[in-house]
Design goal:
mainly alpha, elongated, 106 residues, 76% helix
């Protein structure tokens, strides 16, 4: 994969992550994730699953993006996933932080 294409995918991916973060932050500030039933609401489910679904579709239809993803360092990806697990356990407070770190393959 050429360096220019990889760089373009990197920039696009970072922009998409920034937009997704901004939208999630704005939705939270507007109270869209508020749930008085103390359960995971539909807004949280959509916010959590939409990036995964979009990634899977993009990965399936774009050979260039698939090559970019496969060129990434697995250790960095594992570290990022560890942060997601820690954030999730902190959000729901069902899994202690230490357990999240022990579950990490790093």
């Amino acid at each position: 994969m050429s360096g220019e294409i990889k760089f373009n995918y990197r920039k696009l991916t970072l922009r998409l992550i920034a937009v997704w973060f901004g939208m999630a932050l704005a939705a939270s500030a507007l109270g869209l994730f508020k749930n008085n039933a103390q359960r995971v609401g539909i807004a949280v489910a959509i916010a959590a699953s939409a990036p995964i679904v979009l990634f899977a579709i993009w990965h399936a239809v774009s050979a260039g993006f698939r090559a970019f993803v496969l060129s990434l360092n697995p250790r960095v990806l594992t570290a990022l996933q560890t942060w997601r697990i820690i954030g999730l356990s902190n959000q729901f407070r069902n899994v202690p932080l230490l357990t999240a770190l022990e579950m990490s393959p790093c």
